[in-house]
Amino acid sequence: MVSGETRNALTELRRGVLEYCVLSVLRHRESYAFEIVRNLSGAGELLTSEGTIYPLLARLRRDELVTTTWRESEAGPPRRYYRLTDAGRRALAAFVDDWGRFRTAVDALLAGTAREGT
Amino acid sequence: MNADALVSDYLGRLEAASWPLPPERRTELAGEVREHIEAALSEAGSRDEVTVRNVLERLGRPEEIVAGEAGAAPNAPVVSVNVGPSMGRVGAVEIAAILLLTLGAFLLPLIGPVIGLVFVWLSSAWSTRVKVIVTAIVLAVVIIPILGLLAARTM
Fold first, then answer.
1. For residues A49 and B61, is the Cβ–Cβ distance under 8 A?
2. Which of A38, A47, A49, A56 to mutate to test the interface with B (most CBs of B within 10 A)?
3. A31-32 vs A66-71, strand pairing mode
4. What is the DSSP letter of A51?
């Protein structure tokens, strides 16, 4: 039961954070979905089911945090490239600030827990 | 099952699971996932059964992908089972819309259905297609006859 709850907590965390990880992947250059997935899976834990990137990207498009352009690819069908909008850049910057504070607070509490050996 | 059959089986499950989505998004998502599978297979450089199974496994269950569309929890059903496709998650807005369009038409002629339509368009549970259909029906059944009556009365 406990391990199940931990899994749920991780799922919730992932869901909250993944969107900003995608924005972060796009911060220097535009990219297409499959390449974004590869960049995220480099980070390990983040994307457990690759297919869930598509609903996420659709939401980012709807929220106008990214814009897209179709481009020809060397092989295969044209690809939809994603690029950060100004709003996306602002959302990412805000999250980076929030995340720093969040992580510091949680780390401080958890460090205490670890010392007590629970 | 051979490799191609595995892929079409997966895409079939995705199509079945994605019925609550708006039609355009449903088609788009199917295309995105199909291309993902193609990209992953050409990256792997093989289309044998084991490779295909791994690619599909990494994609995750179709139901899980669709659940992400609604912003719902992956293990929660996107919509409850007993309601039709036009009735996503029925909340206060939807109930208000239905009451205004039915009872409201008698209690508050013209104004009731008009406010009802506003609620219909405010709903996040109903797709645009449903909203357009409801609006057309209300215009035809409720508002036009009432306007006709009012016009007849003033003549």
1. yes
2. A49
3. unpaired
4. G
ipTM of this model? 0.84
On chain A, the residues whose CB falls within 8 A of the CB of B66 are 55
Specify the CATH class of A2-115 in words.
Answer: mainly alpha
**Considering only alpha carbons, which residue of chain B is nearest residue A50?**
B59
Query: Residue with structure tokens 């910057």?
Result: A93
State the smallest CA–CA distance between residue A50 and chain B in angstroms. Answer: 4
Closest residue in B to A13 (Cα–Cα): B73
CB B36 within 8 A of CB A14: no
Could you tell me which residues come within 8 angstroms of residue B68 by beta carbon, excluding any fewer than 6 positions away?
A: A52, A54, A55, A56, B74
CA–CA distance, A50 with B79 (Å, rounded to integer): 23
- Chain B residue numbers with beta carbons less than 8 Å from the beta carbon of A59 are 71
Interface check for B71 against chain A (CB to CB < 8 A): the answer is yes
> Where in chain A are the domains?
2-115
Partners of B59 on chain A (C-beta within 8 Å) are 49-51
CA Rg value for chain A = 17
Note down pLDDT in tens along chain B; length 155 residues. 789 999 999 999 999 999 999 999 999 999 999 999 999 999 999 999 999 999 999 999 999 999 998 754 444 444 444 444 444 556 777 877 878 778 777 777 777 888 787 877 888 778 787 888 888 887 787 777 777 888 887 76
Question: Long-range pairs for B104-107 at CB < 8 Å and ≥24 separation?
Answer: B105/B142
CB neighbour class for A3 (10 Å; exposed up to 12, middle 13-18, buried from 19): exposed
